[in-house]
Amino acid sequence: MKYIENWDQRKQRYIDTWAMENHDRPLVILTTPKSGAKPVYDIQRPEAIRDRWLDFEWVVKNARNRMEQTYFAAESIPHYNPNLGPDIFGAILGCDLEFGESTSWCSHPIKDWEDFKAEYNHDNPWLQKILQLTRLCVEEAKGDFLVGITDIHCGMDGLVSLRGPAELCMDLYDCPELIKPLPMQLFEVFKSFYNELESITSQNQEGTINWMGIWHPGRWYVTSCDFNCMVSNEMFQEFILPELVAETEFLDANIYHLDGPGALVQLDSLLELPGVNGIQWVPGAGAKPMREWPDVLKKCQDAGKMLNLSCEMEDLPLLAEVLKPEGVILCLYGPSNPEEADAALKTVEKLWHRRKIF
Hints:
Elements: H1 7-18, E1 27-33, H2 49-54, H3 56-69, E2 70-74, E3 79-80, H4 88-92, E4 97-99, E5 104-106, H5 125-141, E6 146-147, H6 155-163, H7 165-174, H8 176-179, H9 182-201, E7 220-224, H10 233-250, E8 253-259, H11 267-271, E9 278-282, H12 294-302, E10 306-312, H13 316-322, E11 328-333, H14 338-357
Parallel strand pairs: 1-11, 3-6, 7-8, 8-9, 9-10, 10-11
Antiparallel strand pairs: 1-2, 4-5
Helix pairs in contact: 3-5, 5-9, 6-7, 6-9, 9-10, 13-14
């Protein structure tokens, strides 16, 4: 790869971490601007917010510019994730998208579920747009950097895009018999969508990557259901778990995105699933920092799961005290230049070496 010199070494550490064989320290993802880096928006940024998403020529040039201005420390991988926001899966099922500065959101066109049928419609304009963007990114990358699979929220989250969260909550009481089969219908669309995207990204790269920035030699993806914080564990097991299990069986590997304290009610059920390889614990906006969740982290690791944790330098001493390195991925924030990034990696090495000694 063009922007790192030791891709084979980084690749091996990912393989070791997925196998829980990284015995010396956690895998570390950490990027900073290069010394003397120029602002990435120097390249003719479109005036209209919508164009910053849909002017694909600019999007691809901006992706390349970001690679050139970024220092990829530790095991960070130069990659770009084609992105039209978290509701792109709902959009290919019939929603429309509106764009803001940093995210997009969708309409909720479903008024009732009687006539709904989940289909992978190749004529859908939003499907064509994300496929086009992915192809353009692959053509631009030419192996210089990796291209990820876009953010896909299927299952119950896909139904939220179509219906709205409050309305879907009521539907679980008013017409549960209509809702129960729908996540598996969406799963069939997910398989077609994922397969087509992966057939594009695999043209000049090995393995897969996505918005988590984690590489796997096979077909991996983030499993998730943000809606899980709005239902009881009983409803989670009845309406969400079957589709999640199907995702884990379809993929070579996965890490479940567990977001916010409200989602912890589902943790025990997730840890019981052998097909869930790992947990990304996200405390949530305004919640306690990562170092104040030792019980949650230990519980996941004691269940044999990998951990993907976004943390600050202040979190590291506690994490080194309570966590073995095997299967742990740290996405570190705080260092602002290459020298600080390299020093942060040495701190990780020392902390986990000290833990090994004691």
